[in-house]
Amino acid sequence: MASTTTTRRPANTKKIVASIGVVAAVAAVAGTGAFALFTDSGSGTLHADSGQVKILMNQTVSVSNIAPTDTIQRPLVVTLPAFASSTGNKGALVKQVDLSYSVAGEVKGVDKSSTAAVPPASNSLVTGTDGLTYTLLNCIGGTWISSSAPAGSYTCDSGTTPNTATTASVGTGALSSFSTGTPIHITPTAAGLIPTSDGTFNTASDVTLNLLLSLTLPDAVDNNSYSNASADLAFTAAAIQRAGIQK
Which of 201, 75, 192 is nearest to 140 (CA)? Predict the structure, then answer.
């Protein structure tokens, strides 16, 4: 019987040809990249810090033993420290100063119309309908001076001749209209000053608000309900930061 030999050479030839084609393609890609690649590098830094909101005030105003139509004037000095590069921002971020008060202690008036052996307490000098009224002024370019300090009356004086100091009215009304919950907002404009572009106090140097608080007991006070009333008031100034801006 004759033997038969089967030849598969064509199939092997296809496989070899295919393999060579893949190798050639890879070599072409690698060769192209080797002559077209350029590199460079650089670096940069960003410094950011958080500023400080700072205010200086340490005064207490006491009001006692006053009669109808009496006026009590007391200076309140509030300072926003200047910007200092060595310590960061201080007052430079302040958009307003909030002035409020709390009642440190009070005695309400006696109801003299009562027939009781011990008349009950009646109206408050602070919250009564005819209680204390206030006026708040700012002395620009000077300080408040009085020849009978601490009692008034006070004048805004620059200490020069002619007097170049001016006054700005910050607020007026019933004393009960502002308190810790509803303070007086003292903005640069309200204080008679020009704000910066972002609405804050310009603290290139110390900003001093030379405020004068005048408290008056109205003539309409009823002697039957306010007699012997007294009040001790503690005032607080708080620095309020500006709103966030694009930096």
Answer: 192
